[in-house]
Amino acid sequence: MNKKAIVLFILVTALTFSNSLFNNFVGDDKEFILENPFYHSLKNIPLIFEQSYLTGNTISYSLTKDEISSGEVAYRPVLSLTYFFDYWLWKTNAFGFHLHNLTLHIFNVILVYFLLIRILKNNRIAFFSALLFGIHPVQTEAVNNIGYRTDILFSFFTLLSLHLYFTWINTQHKSGKYYFLSHLFYFLALFTKEAGLVMPILILAYHGHFQKQDLRISPRSMFSRYGGYVLISLFYVFIYFKVFRNITIASHNFFGENIFTHATTMLWIFSLYLRDLCLPFFVKIIPPLYAPDIQSYLMAKAVSSVLLLVLFLRTIQRSYHTEKMISFFLLWYLIYLLPVANFIPLDNPMSHRFLYLPTIGFFAAVGILIEKLCNQLKNLNISPKIGTFIKLCIVGICINSTITLNTYWKNNISVADILVENYPKNIKSHRMLGLECFKRGHYQKAGKLFTKCVTLGSKDPRDFHLLGIALLDKPGEADTFFKRFPRYGSPYVVLGRKHVLNKEYEQALPLLEKSIELTPTYIGIGYLLQVYMRLDQPMNARSLMELAKKFVHNEGQIRILQMILEQQRNSLEPIDIGL
User: Fold this and answer.
1) In sequence order, what DSSP letters do the residues of 127-159 get, joined into one string?
2) Domain chopping of the chain, boundaries
3) Which CATH code of 3.30.360.10, 1.25.40.10, 3.20.190.10, 1.10.10.10 fits the domain covering 411-485?
4) Would you say 38 and 68 are in contact if contact means Cβ atoms under 8 Å apart?
5) How far is CA 337 from the centre of its chain?
6) Could you state, in chain order, the average pLDDT of each consecutive group of 10 residues for the chain (579 residues)?
7) CATH code that applies to domain 489-579
8) First and final CA of the chain: distance in angstroms?
């Protein structure tokens, strides 16, 4: 059964996600991985042990070459090592990065299967539950987005650690190698994602359900069993808060700026997660940094979500006395949901990738319930084919929904299109689509989308800046948007470019110099070089070129700037290097 099951897991999961292999880089994948010089050389690997590893809120293009960083706001060096490996092996080929994600996911499905066999002692339930874990559409976000690999990877190490722990406690002679390897993989899980910290709580919940006597052992035995995990956890907490501190934590505020709205948002997210797990055809791509709107029907959402949580907790309590397996696996779901439950507000309040490891418990509980239903049908002399039909329908719905969602992850334009369709009042969705339209030269459509961002109440300078660019054929309106944020450098580049292309070099000079003062960029330097040469200021041009060598990471761009410097000595026409 095991060999056939493994083959089926590989085939079904691979076929379900096969169309994801041909998707491109999406979202921040290009900025944080593909175009980030941090990952372009294996010589940068030692940088994962330096303070410069942490990025903060975003990669700043004003960083010098000596200040390149990983793109991570939390200390996740194990994850970063996989990106080093992928770029070394595949360079800019997205297929290889996606293949890495899918391979990890398939390994996780197999690990889930064997872990559930160990706990449930039932191959049928373990097989169906692991299959659901592999093909359910909530997994598409983690599998399709290269930048979200962290959830797949830390789950891989966590599952290995749990397997080895259970092997160790069930081994008669308590083999030390299992004990050591379990701690090693727990260590790797933590340094992949901080959510791994709750694994010892899961182990305690397991013993509390099935082996209470193991919680009454002597303090010495207790320390030998759990002390290693505690020490590793304390070491990681020290690294996370003192050595490589996530500076974004302190900046988080309550959702809605008060406790009631914050708590209601938390509970409503919990309810939406359960809806998506129980009704896979409802699953949709979630916008980046998304928090659901709860202001409409606030009290109704508050009451219904509280009732759902109470029902969920009551089910855990009641099943503890009647069906401990269901109780344990529902508790598994809650335990691994805790780190992303927004007790401490997250930059990204809601995301399907957060469900990746919690769903193991949820799908195991579902597998047990469906097996009970099938047994009851059998006791009523109803054909067992009905039970098989129910399982096949669930699997078919999941596969169809997952394949469909994979197509939406094809590229940024397909993601943005579906986000605007599904979330018409979400600013970030309109911004994402507007940016993609702008890159493709569809300025009129981009202008409408950025106008929508501003209408919806955006305070982000990028939206005003990009709206100004889209309205360049209406200088009066464009300048209004550019001047809205005087400390934002990009509008000065846009206005300076306009004057350069019109050969108005005197007017372009202060604008482009201001842009370099605020944020040195390749584009701004390129136009300012032309201005200096046309105004016969070669000394300033050479100084600017030296500055470019510090701030421009791409060697190809450096060569273009050098070419501009040489050509402008004799050229009568300005060079348009874009925006």
Assistant:
1) HHHHHHHHH-GGGHHHHH-GGGHHHHHHHHHHH
2) 262-401, 411-485, 489-579
3) 1.25.40.10
4) yes
5) 15
6) 89 97 91 86 91 64 59 91 96 95 98 95 95 98 95 98 91 78 97 95 91 68 82 95 79 74 94 97 94 89 95 94 94 96 88 97 96 85 82 96 97 95 93 86 86 90 80 70 73 83 90 87 90 88 88 80 75 77
7) 1.25.40.10
8) 59
